[in-house]
Amino acid sequence: LLRRVMQGIGEDLRYALRLALRRPALTAVTILMLAIGVGSNTAIFSLVNAALLRPLPVPNSERLVRLFGATDVRAFDVISYPNAVDFVSRSRTLHSLAIHQQTFVASGLGDATETAAIELVSGNYFSTFGVPAALGRVIQPDDDQLNAGQPVAVISDRWWRTRFGASPAVLGSPVYLNGAAFSVIGVAPAAFRGSYDALGTDMWVPLMTYGTVRPRGLDITNRGWGWLYSTGRLREGVAIEQARAELAGIASALRREHASQNDNLKVSLVRALAIPEDMAPMLQRVLIFALIVAGLALAGACANIANVQLAGVIGRRREIAIRQAMGATRARVMRQWIAESILLACTAAAVGLLLAVWTQDAILMLRPPVPGLQNLDPNVVFDWRVLSFAAALAMLTTVLFGGLPAYRATCFEVTAPLKEDGVTSIGGRRRSLAQRILLVTQVAVSLALLVSAGLLVRSIAAVGAFPLGFNASNLVIAEAEPGGLNYNAARRRVYYRETMERVRALPGVSAVTFGAVVPLGDARESRGVAIEGYTPPDGKRFISIATNLVATNYFDVMSIPIVGGRGFAPGDGDDEAAVVAVVNETMARRYWRDGDPIGRQIQLGNAPPVQVVGVAKDIPYYAVGEPPRPYLYLPFGPITMDTLAFHVRATGNVGLAQALRRELRATDSRIRVPVVMGYEELRQIPLYPSRVMATVSSAFGVMTLLLTLVGLYGVVVYSVSQRTREFAVRMALGARPGDILRGVLRGAVGMTAVGVVIGVAVAAMLARLLRGFLFGVSTFDPVTFGSCAAILVVIALTAAYVPARRATRIDSAAALTGRVG
Q: Residue 817: what pLDDT?
């Protein structure tokens, strides 16, 4: 029996292949539409799999957890080294806790310097992850000591192959990080890419070398210096809920024991992911949105193909009737149609999977243009999850576009098609209803995708039109990191001032200044400030105020108005000058009762008091539309920073990026210059998720809209052909061509209207995923919904007009005598 069944299936597939080859154009278009749908869904799911589903490539990865600090506004915050040590020493649920931090450093010497992504790791890092060395050995606790002697490094497999030619003699070779020599002691396994699989690490060095590779002028034993991340391994049989409860208790004890430094200490414990956990919620929403959009587009394509298949059923009605007359059962006829659908779906799935594989490099082009994510690589692997997803899509598409036509193929009476005179078609009404349902589906999908794209585009436009409060035109941002080379404060001052003069002398530069924080950039800086005459509600002396360290000409170059007092004068930045400050309007109103801080004093930590000399107008600092926040400006000179960004006002941009990089590294070729970009490009970075989603929904929306046009045209053509005699009779009885035209168009608009109503409901549900990505527009924006619906109706009328116009030119006499079909 099984043999006969398999033989029958084989015959069905061979016959389906002959039919497909007999109509190559239609087959190719069908396969291409499905392949795009299946391939896009598979590619997006592969990203979901790589970022959110696939475990880290280490033994027993299900027991790996991340331990974070936590605040009221950040669930994934850094912790200090002493706190991390106390957590692991007191915990009975954690087997071990590795401490780590990724950073970027200058690797190499002289002109050969390049940027390397490294991780500072504790001595138990590799044992916690369960990763041995592929060559040599890994970092041990003895290597992670402040006075351990020659610093060591473990390099990645990729670095070993690309920089050392995969030579076993690499052990003992020096690598230079920020000008300091590290000795290579081992090579990591090829599968291990670091704490986060999606952030490729080039090498690992002991945590206690932080003074060399990440100098910040602070002691690692400072409990108040939170800057580290940690990954722990649960003990056998311990549930993560138990560990959370225990660590919360330890945090409570540490708050009591070290009240001055741990007053707000809380912890968060989560499963370890392949991407940074603070990125996961946003990325998850973006990928799920993209997956839903691609799925809707695939459903629209299937509806279109089902319409074509229904037309094929009518075209082959005689064949079907003959087969039934010769004894074929309904199940046998249905099996033949399912076989044809399976052939198309499986071929399309195979082509779609190839498209998904070929677009791996294109997927990397979706990487956000953020310097801190320059090593982001989702490490897409088409494993069993992705292959299973593609197979499931093939089955689903078979059902979506093959099920209804297969059923309709069995609904003919055996004798009716054989006696058909060519003027009418058996089952016309049923087929017309099925076509209309499929068309309504396409309209609904098109509207949902177009509305989503419209909401995002309007939001991006609203952000672009938002007033910044400063002059952003022709502004180029160039960031330099001399502090990574252990420059002291005096040498940093000399570097920035001399470099600013060289940049100012470049052709095409009209003005230049610098600051530690770029408005609307991703950098953050804050300081503890005590304000004369103000007592915080919690009774503490210091409050945290967002701060920017700037050149004395900053307000002039950026065109930020000074609304009270004065801005910084050149003497304010002298090395031995007393520190003065400028506050913004919000800070002046909030912390001084009369709103006038001029001449008042504030204190930064234990430093001498600072006098406020001016009030600057509020601008958006971190995000467009953010609530007003207190902000403090300090002059560069008495206070310095490791990293500052040059703000260059350009008169032209020909070769300016290369010239800026050259000048920023002119005094020391080891200096990293991670960012050189126009300000308009930089300020678009926070909009990157919205742009990706707008692009995806727009592309699929337009594709589905085109399919809808074709489908609507086909439905109206079929409807006109079915009603030929009806129109002839009506015209013979005196109906005017305009009456016929309006009747046909009314039917097309009616179908479109039903699709619009359903599409509005689908769009409203899809728009819920866009919350948090929209600015200046609501998720149910009437302008967007109304305009997209109107566009669809107009397009529907346009698509229906041509066949409707033909209906008005019917020859009544010929139609009634049966001389037309």
A: 59
Structure tokens at 562: 């000074």
- The angle subtended at Cα 325 by Cα 320 and Cα 326, nearest 5°, is 100
Q: Give the contacts of 354 (CB within 8 A, at least 6 positions apart).
A: 39
Q: Which whole number is the average pLDDT over 36-46?
A: 87
The tokens describing 559, both together, are 């065109």
Alpha-carbon gap, residue 200 to 376, rounded angstroms:
7
With H, G, I as helix, E, B as strand and everything else as coil, classify residue 749: helix
Element of type H or E holding 812? helix 812-816
Pairing assessment for the beta strands 267-271 and 64-69 based on DSSP bridges: antiparallel
Residue 410's alpha-carbon distances to 118, 197, 310, 806, in angstroms, are 66, 53, 12, 32
Instruction: State the sign of the Cα–Cα–Cα–Cα dihedral 42, 47, 51, 54.
Output: positive
Q: Give the integer Cα–Cα distance in Å for 557 and 555.
A: 6
Taking the C-alpha atoms of residue 144 and residue 153, their distance in angstroms, rounded to an integer, is 11
Dist. CA 359–CA 781, nearest whole Å = 35
Residue 76 neighbours by CB under 8 Å, 6+ apart: 66, 68, 70, 268, 270, 276, 277, 278
Res. 244: pLDDT tops 50: yes
Cα gap 702→700, rounded to integer Å: 6
What CA–CA distance (Å, rounded) separates 130 from 60? 8
Count of alpha carbons within 13 angstroms of residue 625, beta-carbon side: 14
- Residue 309 confidence (pLDDT): 76
- pLDDT given at position 653: 58
Q: At what angle do helices 737-767 and 688-722 cross, to 10 degrees?
A: 150
pLDDT above 70: residue 262: yes
Q: Give every CB contact of residue 815 below 8 A, 6+ residues apart in sequence.
A: 724, 725, 727, 728
Q: What separation in angstroms does the CA of 677 have from each of 35, 425, 658, 685?
A: 38, 65, 11, 11
Contact 142, 129 (CB under 8 A): no
CB 205 within 8 A of CB 153: yes
* Phi, psi for residue 739 in degrees, rounded to 5: -65, -45
Q: Of all helices (H) and strands (E), which one includes residue 243?
A: helix 240-257
Output phi, psi for 134, to 5 deg: -80, -25
User: Please, are residues 369 and 519 in contact by the beta-carbon 8 Å criterion?
Assistant: no
Which DSSP string corresponds to 181-223?
Answer: EEEEEEE--TT---SSTTB--SEEEEGGGHHHHS--S--TT-T
Q: How far apart are CA 780 and CA 433, in angstroms?
A: 31
- Rounded to two decimals, the pTM is 0.80
Per residue in 536-589, pLDDT (tens digit) is 877 777 888 999 999 999 999 999 999 999 999 988 878 777 889 999 999 999
